[in-house]
Amino acid sequence: MARWLEDARIRLRLHRFERLIGKGGFGPYQILLVGQRVNRLAPVGPTGTRVQVHTGVRRVGRSSFTFEQVIMVDGKHVGGGDATVVLADSSGPLQLPDELIADLDEMQLPETGTSAAARPRPERLQRAHYSYWATLRSRIGDVDSNQHVNFIALATWYDEAVATFTSHSIGTSGAGSVPDLPPSSYQIQYLGEVTYPGDYEIGLTVRSVDTDSVHYELGVFHDSTCLSVADAIGPRGKLTAEVLEAAPMAD
Fold first, then answer.
1. Which of 71, 216, 220 has the alpha carbon at shortest distance from 142?
2. Is the pTM of this model over 0.85?
3. Coil, strand or helix at 194
4. What string of pLDDT tens digits covers the 251 residues of the chain?
5. Alpha-carbon distance 131 to 111, whole Å?
6. Residue 128, exposed/middle/buried by CB under 10 A (0-12, 13-18, 19+)?
7. Cα–Cα distance between 88 and 92 in angstroms, integer?
8. Which helix (H) or strand (E) holds 34?
């Protein structure tokens, strides 16, 4: 679903901004994703199912803007999310040009009072906050045109950490089938670049537990530096109360 949302954003035509770029009136710049949310609400169906992604703009700031998207199949809302984007050069974020703002205004959604995502709590940036760790090495296939690990590849790292935690907790590490407990909801904020080559650690702690779901807090670290944080909700499955009580929970 994250790929579908990205594909829909890439297909958007921003005619005024494109003309400005064509005339050399803005740039050079990079398009950077600083945060995203992806929710899977229902199964989509078999391969070949026709999927529609609807995209609008929720917020436009001086140097960033936020898309909001929904995924529909046969009139049913099966998923969605949002993405906050900045344009930047080597000195940092750039002020959005008037032409881009005009294009985005045409896609503005009705006001709902939704605010921008809050900055991560300070403890989320500290290794001591996390109780379980998975080690990963960046791969050349993860690198995108901006020369860092692509945000979708990075989302799979969080999946890897949850899968490692659940396998270890249920006792199937190294033997038996992998528990099918991938998160259905992610809210991710990107704080720095994850690059190639590099060795990284993904920290995980259990935030809370419901009858059917587990709420995780995760972070990507290079040594002591936190480069990304995520909140995820996944199915509880065979994670017993004893197992979850043994995993220290976030305060």
1. 220
2. yes
3. coil
4. 999 999 999 999 999 999 999 999 998 999 999 999 999 999 898 888 999 999 999 999 999 999 999 999 999 999 999 999 999 999 999 999 999 999 999 999 997 666 667 789 999 999 999 999 999 999 999 988 878 898 888 999 999 999 989 888 887 655 667 777 889 999 999 999 899 999 999 999 999 999 899 999 999 999 999 999 999 999 998 887 776 766 656 65
5. 39
6. exposed
7. 5
8. strand 30-40
Tokens of 87: 């344009």
The strand pairing partners of 235, in sequence order, are 213
- The two tokens of residue 237 are 């499955």
DSSP string, 214-242: EEEEEEEEETTEEEEEEEEEEE-TT--HH
Q: Quick one: which of 78, 74, 77, 69 has its CA closest to 44?
A: 78
Cα 120 → chain centroid: 14
8: buried, middle or exposed (CB in 10 Å: 19+, 13-18, 0-12)?
middle
Strand partners, 221: 201, 226
